[in-house]
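W.,

You were right to be curious about this one. When I first looked at the sequence I had no strong expectations either way, so I just let the prediction run and decided to look at it fresh. Below is the sequence, 183 residues in total, followed by the output.
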Amino acid sequence: MTKVTWVAALAVGAAFALAGCGGDPAEPAGADEPTAAQADGGDGGDGGDGGDGGDGGGSIDCSQIDGALVADYSLAIQMLAQISEPGSIESVTTLGYSSEKLDAALANLEPVRAAAETPFGDPSTALDYYIALNAAMAALVAKGDAVTQADVDAYNAGAGSPEDIIAGQLPINFALSEGCPDL
C-alpha cells in the first residue's frame, strides 16, 4: 500500500470516527440528557440570545450540519495536512480534495461560531484558520505543474505541522459534539 493510500485510508477512518462524535453506540439516539437550552425550551432562559454567546450546548443551529458534512470536512482537512512536496498536491486532488467542496463545508459549519470557547480552543478561530488554509491550498492547486518546493514550504510555514492542521479540528468537533449531539 502506498503512503498516500495509507494516509487516505487513515483519514477516512478518522473522518468516520469524528463524524460519530463519541457517545455509547449501545445507547439509542437522543438518549443523552437534554442540555439546559433544550430543557427550558431552547432559549437558555434569557430571552433567546444564548446568554454569553453560546455555551456549546444547543446554541449551534445544526440544521445545515449532518454527519456527511462532518466527514467531508474532516477528510479534506486530513488531506491539507499531507502537503510535503509538489507531487502531493496532485495526489490529494486525485483522492478527492476540492477547495470548492471544502469551502462549502466550512460555510455550512459557520454556526459553530455561536459556541463558546472549548477546552481545545475557540471554534471561530479554528474555522478562520481552515478558511485561510483552504484558500492557500486553492492557490497551490491553481498553479498546477508550476508549483515549486518553495511554494509548498511557504504553505507549510503558514499552516504549521501536520499535527497542528489535524488538531485544529478539535475546537470545531468538540463544539459540534456538544451543540449537535444527534450528528
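Here's what jumped out at me. The chain has one domain: 3-19+62-179. And, maybe more interesting for your project: The CA atoms of residues 79 and 92 lie 6 Å apart.

Coffee later to discuss?

I.
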